[in-house]
Structure formats: structure tokens, C-alpha cells
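Running low. Invent one:
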Amino acid sequence: MRGLCWPVLLLLLQPWETQLQSAGPRCHTGPLDLVFVIDSSRSVRPFEFETMRQFLVGLVRGLNVGPNATRVGVIQYSSQVQSVFPLGAFSRSEDMERAIRDLVPLAQGTMTGLAIQYAMNVAFSVAEGARPPEERVPRVAVIVTDGRPQDRVAEVAAQARARGIEIYAVGVQRADVGSLRAMASPPLDEHVFLVESFDLIQEFGLQFQGRLCAIDLCAEGTHGCEHHCVNSPGSYFCRCQVGFVLQQDQRSCRAIDYCSFGNHSCQHECVSTLGGPRCHCREGHDLQPDGRSCQVRDLCNGVDHGCEFQCVSKGLSFRCLCPEGRQLQADGKSCSRCREGHVDLVLLIDGSKSVRPQNFELVKRFVNQIVDFLDVSPEGTRVGLVQFSSRVRTEFPLGRYGTAAEVKQAVLAVEYMERGTMTGLALRHMVEHSFSEAQGARPRALNVPRVGLVFTDGRSQDDISVWAARAKEEGIVMYAVGVGKAVEAELREIASEPAELHVSYAPDFGTMTHLLENLKGSICPEEGISAGTELRSPCECESLVEFQGRTLGALENLTRNLAQLTARLEDLENHLANQK
């Protein structure tokens, strides 16, 4: 490192006017972190300080400064230490000159040891602009003083040298030689300089110019280094970039194979990068947070699969499935609709204040997604909607709308009620009114399944047990959908058995759409919701016999009623005739 700083010392001792006039090639310093430690105590007279200021300006002009070349910092000291500008402040000599010309001396004591400690701990820190130690950029401190230190310097200077800082001690006039030798790096005859006055400090540079100027062998372009060339005294050496190692020829570089060390712990593959080993997973697998293990990729969670009912990952792809009784369509994603099903479906939606308006809109969208997979028609599925809070309101009964489009439009027009959560009252309303023939429900004799779906986000404020049990006694197949703070025990009490097939839950309104998968596979009668109820086709023989029996019975009643009406008419005619 010592030899790398000889060109710097040349510039230190050479007047800037002479540098501009000197003939021949300029001395190159190469990458270097250089900090000037300037004594500005009261013993330095104003004109002497001005001479030192001009000296520093000349030095800066002669340096090859830049982020990748020489970085310069300046600190001054007396009884305290002041940073004029740190290593990372400027990359142009013009900016450095301007800061030096604005420098105002401190004019107090001479605490040289304190200044060395500041340089070691602060000025040469990475935070101040010094390059990290692993880059092996030389660190040089040039101390210029004119007197005896008022504190100890030997111990702190030894610590600085131990940290790799090369120290030059330049004494002017009244400087103490013993202190200079205690501060400087060995060999002392190359690092300690003493001049009689500030006026002679520039002549000192001229005197040693020929001896100290080193030839920049790297600049000649014949070094053959693949990456970087670094000057050394009378020679040079090659250095590789981070992540590479120098080959036996001491010129070419090879990328370090970190994986060959055998300690990467990668489950699948190890890939060497400039920053070290990186684990890589085979196709169809994802790297886990530990950075080493791999897991088979679940394509159903990682892509927009578009499956209507269920997505199943299979190797490097996925496939869509439909519930039992429904066929996968030609697009490979959608399922056949519930065309053969006949259902009377009443939805009870929670409109309490805890739902909030924006979430209520999500609930309406959720209801319309259920309608989308039903065959809504007077002969197929009929849909009714009831909203409840502190009271109950029928939004539209079972018999009002005959198409899915009409139902969906009506759902979107529903207004949010707010207030409380009277789920028990809503169940009673459903049992007593919603499934009545007056509201559009089909007669029980037709064995059309009756399905109730309760949607709620919290605990009921009234008792639900009586009317939940009554609904099931009336043959209504009950589903309970809970969101957020819905109570599981209440959901299970509302739902039909088994609860696992009739209770659904989502942690929040934004994630409840996944519940559609379960409901799509359940509401169609052929998929199991009408367990215990038999839905017979009107074209089957037994249904024809039943229909014939009901028709004959109705005709007999009509015949009896007609006979009674005829008898009354005859009595009326006789009565009128007698009055005449």
C-alpha cells in the first residue's frame, strides 16, 4: 500500500503552478481514498494559512479525482475537529477548490490526537464516502502541522495504522519531530517530512519530484489484466471483480463456483451468481421462503384458471371439474346448468348496519352469481328474496319473476335497510309466508324441493332455535352462509344436516365468492339437496296416474257443485212462480 501513495506524496510536495507547467506525463494515483488533516490552530498565522490553502488547491488540481479514481476529503483541527468536506462529497476538482477557498481557520489549540481519531472513525468510514475494505483501495492520511500536539498521538496513530491507514506527517517550522515520527507510517524516512516555513513547502515538492513520481504502468495498456489493473511501486498487479477469482496466470479471471463448495443445501438445483449461490427449482415448482426447498406449483392458485366449479392441478397444467350430475362444457371450464332442476329457492340476506353499504353491494353481487347457475323459469327454479335487520321485508316473492335477468335486475334494485339483526324473525317470516302458494311456491303435492339460504355476518339479536327447527320440520332444506363475525353455532342450528354440506363461511366479504363452488354443487336437486323429497318427471307413469286421479277428483267436485247450483236455480224459479 505504501508504494501506491508515492504519487500522492509527490503532489503534496509540488506547487500547483509547477504542476501545470511541468513537462512529460502526469503522475497517476489510481484508486485512492485521501484525507488531508490540516492544523488550523492559533499558532498558524493568517498569511501562513493562506499559503497552505493555495498549496491544497494546487494538490487537488493535480489529482486524478473521481468516484472510481481518487476521492479526497479535508478536515481541519485545533481544539476541536471540523470536516471541510468528506470523501464522498465531490467528484470534481473545481468543487473541492471552492470548498477549500471558503475554509475559515479555527484558531484555537492543537489537538492532533483528536484529529487522527476523527479521521480513523469518521472520515474513512463508508458512510462518509470511503470505499469498503474488501475493495482494497488504499487509505492515506496526510497530516500537516506546525507545532507540538496538546494531546497524545502515539497510541491513536498506531490504531489508525493497524486499520490500514497510511499516515504521512509533514511538519512546518515549529513542529515537534518526535511527534511526527510517532504519527507516521514506517519506514519513517519516507513518511516524515520537516520544512522550515510554509513558503518552502512547495519547494519541498519540487526537490523530491523526480524521486517520488511513479510510472502508471496500468495506463500503458500492456498489462493484460482481464478485469482491473492496480499500480504498485515499479510494477502492477491484476484484480478481479466481485464474484470472480484470479487464475494461475495472474491476469485472467474465472467466476467463482459457489455451488461446488457443497454447502448450498438446495433441494433441486444450485446456480452460482456473482453474489453467491442461488437455489433454483425445476419447472412446475416454486422456491419456498427459506430460499432452498421447492414445492409443486399449485396452478389453480397461481393463475386465473376460469373453472366454474373446481380447479385441479395436474403436473405442469390444470383441469376443471364439475359436480356430480353436471357436464363439463366444450370450453373446458364451465359446467352444464341446472336445467332439469325444479326448486323453490328463498334467499334471506342480512341487511343490518354491521354489513355496511359497500359490503351489501357485494352480497347482492353474490346473490346474482347464484342466480347465474340456476334455470330460472316458472316451470324450473323460482327465486324469492327477503331482507332482514330489525324488521323483515320481502323484496320479491317466489312467483314474481320468470327469468334470471328479471331476478338479477330486481336484486340490484334492493335498498340497504341497516339497523339490527333479527334472524329468528326472518326465519319465521320465511316459514309462514315466503313458501306459501300465495307467494308463488308450488303445491306440496308436486314435490318441488323448497330451499332456504340464510346469509348473515353476525350474531342474531333474537332466538333462532324455534323457527330454525320449524323450517326443517316443514321440509325446507336450509343452507347457512356466514361471513366475518358470524357465529358458527348459529349457522349450524339454522342449516340442515349434515352441517358440513349445508354451512359455509368466509372470513370477509371480499373472499366469499369461493363459497359459490360449494353452493353450485348443492342447490341443484339432482346433486343431493332434495334428500328425502322425490322430484318425479311429469312424463313418468306414476306421475300420470297421480295427475289423472287429481283431475278426476276435481271433476267430481265440479259435478257435485254444478248439481247443487242447478237445484238452487230450480228452487229459485219455483219461488218466483208462486209469487206471481
